[in-house]
Fold this protein.
Amino acid sequence: MPTTLSVPATRSDTGKLPRLAATNLACRRGNRLLFTGVNFSVDAGHATWLRGRNGRGKTSLLRLAAGLSVPESGTVSWGGVPVRQAAGMAHRMVYVAHASALKDDLTVTESLRFLALLHGRDSDTTAVHQALERVGMASRRDAPVRTLSQGQRRRATLARLALEREASIWILDEPYDALDSDGVDCVNALLHAHLARGGSVLLTSHQAPGASAPPMASFDLDPFA
Amino acid sequence: MGSVFLAVYQRDLRLALRRRVEALLPVVFFVVAISLFPLGVGPEPQILRQMAAGIVWVSALLATMLSVTSLYASDHGDGSLEQMILSGHPGSVIAAAKAAAHWTVTGAPLVLVAPLLGLLLDMSPQALAALLASLLLGTPILSLLGGMGAALTLGLRSAGVLLILLIVPLSIPALIFGAGAVSAAEAGLSAAGHFSLLGALLIMTTLGAPVATSFALRIALE
């Protein structure tokens, strides 16, 4: 029921971030079994880099972790509770998909303010402007999203991460995609700050996250096909 | 919860404002479709008056169905829908806000221009008043049902045709009682019964359609 998802009371929950764990996870897309028997966990303060060849199911795994889809078998749990029933997870999770979730016809600031409001984050114009500044998008903050380049779109999307104040779990699908080296450093700085406050990260990336990235456990999806 | 409703509603209105021409297309369709009838069936006032209620109502139904197809498509395409579903707010509140925004952009203008088109079809003042009231009660039903259809057909090819096939049967009661109210008023009878039934339909759809829509959206995202 949708009502079980409404959990504003737990937002003040500032205890240690529960552990995200996958047990014996299998995922099916159409009639193809993408992976099976996957076990991993992400603890508070830790980052995991999910690797795998194209089409191995990295994005599918992230969607399972975010609770957007249901696994073929196995479970993804958050603090011991299946993610789709975990109270308060919605407010302590940021899922950045490959699609930007920005509206072409709105300005960058308007788009971000809506997302911040939707997720119960600080949606003040000043807070959003500061977040955009941290990802190097201050000069484009009032531009319509449609006019942004691919890399700028990515930066604007990731500005959501700069709005985070509390320890939460970040599930990031190719955060480094289309970014220049300066953009990669911006993201890594955000990751450092996030891990320092006890947050956790699960991300996918084609290339190695780079020298400025925080230490990450790497998890390879290839052997589970 | 109220703030999320308002946020989604305002965002959709703002998006419609940025695409004014697109937002006006259903009303243009409505006007064009209705003004074709006097040309097609002939200009005899007697015939037009008899058919007026049905013509306006059917055109409103089709205008709504045509415009509702894209209600969730762009949010689905750019990932906004995922974010809305993941936000932890009830999907039904988001669905209700989207339907309310759709009604404000499409339904309300239809209600506003309908009396003018009624005059074109030689409707009497009592019939015009009944038409206005029946559309006011009926178009929100169409937006809510249409939103449900849009969610059910999300991501499918030829979603538009499928949506019409799915939703038109469900909206037939609204069509019958809406057009019936106008005919009753035209004949000098009381339309109160028709309005009560339309009101009941509106309450039922308001309670049911957003919940069904939220389930359909969840399924579409899997």
Notes: The two ends of chain B are 24 Å apart (CA to CA).
